[in-house]
Amino acid sequence: MYIQKIHIENFRLLKNVDIVLDKSLTLIVGKNNTGKTSVAHLLQSIINEKKNLSFNDYPLECRKQLYEALEKYWAGQLKNTEIKNQIEETKV
């Protein structure tokens, strides 16, 4: 099987990223703190069929929405079925 492209949303430092893979070789290079390790970790999780992500895999900038949704839920302003609509999901 050949994977041509990977689309990542809301995983660690990767907010909305498309990675196009070449059949012969793909190198992932960049400055520190740009997401190279995040890509490697995600690929490892996919290869090992790891289905669960940890809380640390959820981007820092999206956590504010999560905390606000939980506060509304605890205050009785939001139903548990509505929380998912208030936060951004991680997608691969």
* Largest sheet features: 2 strands, antiparallel
Helix content: 25-40%
| Terminus-to-terminus distance | 17 Å
Number of helices: 3
Low-confidence stretches: none
* Strands, count: 2
Strand order of the largest sheet: 1-2
Q: Would you tell me the structural class of the helices and strands?
A: alpha+beta
Helix-strand sequence: EEHHH
Arithmetic mean pLDDT: 89
* Principal-axis shape: elongated
Radius of gyration: 16 Å
How many discrete structural domains? 1
Q: How much beta, percentage-wise?
A: 15-25%
Notes on the structure:
This protein has 92 residues and is α+β, with helices and mostly antiparallel strands. The protein has one domain. It contains three helices and two strands, in the order ββααα. It has a two-stranded antiparallel ribbon. 5% of the residues are buried. The mean pLDDT is 89. This is AAA family ATPase. Pfam families: AAA_15. It comes from Flavonifractor plautii (Fusobacterium plautii).
